[in-house]
Amino acid sequence: MPIVYWRALDRFRDIVAAHPERAAVIHADGRTRAGLPDYRQLTYAELDAWSDTVAERFLTAGVGRGVRTIVLVRPGPELYAVLYGLFKIGAVPVVIDPGMGLFKMLRCLRAADAEAFVGVTEAQALRIVFRAYFRRVRVAVTVGRSWWQGPTLESWGRTPTSALPEREPAPDDEPLLLAYTTGSTGPAKAVVLTHGNLAAMIDQVDAAREHVAPETSLITAPVAGILELLLGSRCVLPPLIPSQVGATDPAHVVEAVERFEVKTMFASPAVLIPLLAHVRQTGVALPSIRSIYSGGAPVPDSCIAGLREVLPAEAKVYSGYGATEALPMATIESRELLGDLVEQAHTGHGVCVGTPALHVRARIIPITDDPLPDWSDVEGRAGEQSGPHGIGELVVSGPNVSTHYFWPPTADRTGKITEGEVVWHRTGDLAWIDDAGRIRFCGRKTQRLETAQGPMFTVQVEQVFNTVDGVARTALVGVGERGEQQPVLCVELEAGADRAVVEGGLRGRRDEFEVTKPVSEFLFHPGFPVDIRHNAKIGRERLAVWAAKQLGREAS
């Protein structure tokens, strides 16, 4: 088989040729005498040579086209050198969140059936201790110090011995990346992202920023860095712990923005909410920021409004909506959101996440947990949507949307719908589409309530209660048997809020709207469990168990 590469890397090589000394990755490394993060820089030419070296070494070891390669490397220049090196030879990186839990992660990695493994010292130790999970691995490379035989990334050096052999662009439908979902709202699945999927994401990111060439971008999600580097950005990586993004020090984010005159920021709400609080408290200005892109979980409208107040008037704040299987699905800018759309969300219409992204199509299908392998199965359930506005499950298709899973074997049957040549992805999200083509998100399908009065949808209800003074956030859960579930609202208070006053406000708010009237109990929780990737998605399943115990009942 011929050696292939990811066609989108032609963009990268063009940037290297035109601007070899431009900083590509600016990453935190140690501290200054003043106690602030210190930074090192890797130029585009250096990253190109380093990734060429990685590609050359892997080819020599027999790792090439289609070879699945587990990558357990912390965000930083090493990660991008490894990923770009694998992309240059058609190998398929396998990426996963270690924070999902040891044995859950091991089960997922065993299913990947990988032949190569690149990981930090701790990851390699895990591979050796649990060698039965990695029986097919024949090439193992350590990032960092190695206490056993085998190459390290450092020993490979950063300069190739010769030019890479002649290669050809891989077909768009060939796997480029295997990415696991977190499993925070359902079983973790291995998503196949093709060469065409990731290339389409680049075009969508470029379109979202109105084709304005990036200058300097602050990155807190590795996938954003992959795309930004192909657009010529200087990518700044502040110090953070991947499994605890919400613990990122906002002062370090501000310092990085100021030091490198960051123009664009990619961050989850878990980063943006503390950042806004820090900016308000200190009065620091962020004059260089021109755009902020947030994703991973719905951004509270109060956070978006607050960012608009502290950022330059011309700055844009985008809320992105997507999933591992389809990133992005939709976006909306703050100026469109902050108006009637916010008020409508607060009265039970669901959160507006914007119009579908470039070349993405969206439809609503009836709510069911049954497989719908063919579009004729959907048509056979016409008219079954539940709730006002015809709320149903959102399905999407487009060039950036993954059309199949690698694992588990049953995932395609339950998560994809075939319509001729088109494959629709079932998002598992409940929504409706308004007359302007905007998606109104109402909650996860697996987290819906089935009460004696009918179905209830989490986000649709929670948005009504989140407006009460003293409420940090809420989570609707069901207690009891499906079909007879008791709707219970879990409440997280703001610091210093009076519980009795807040509860009175919640009860008054409940009685104003039909969608909230069935809520029978209000339980106050010290701190909601959240997902590991973005530290923002609420773990309602765990809250349901907690609520059931509080009420002396059993969760369904």
TrEMBL record:
Superkingdom of source: Bacteria
AMP-dependent synthetase/ligase domain ranges (all copies): 13-406
Pfam family of the protein (one): AMP-binding
Full protein name: AMP-binding protein
Source species: Nocardia tengchongensis
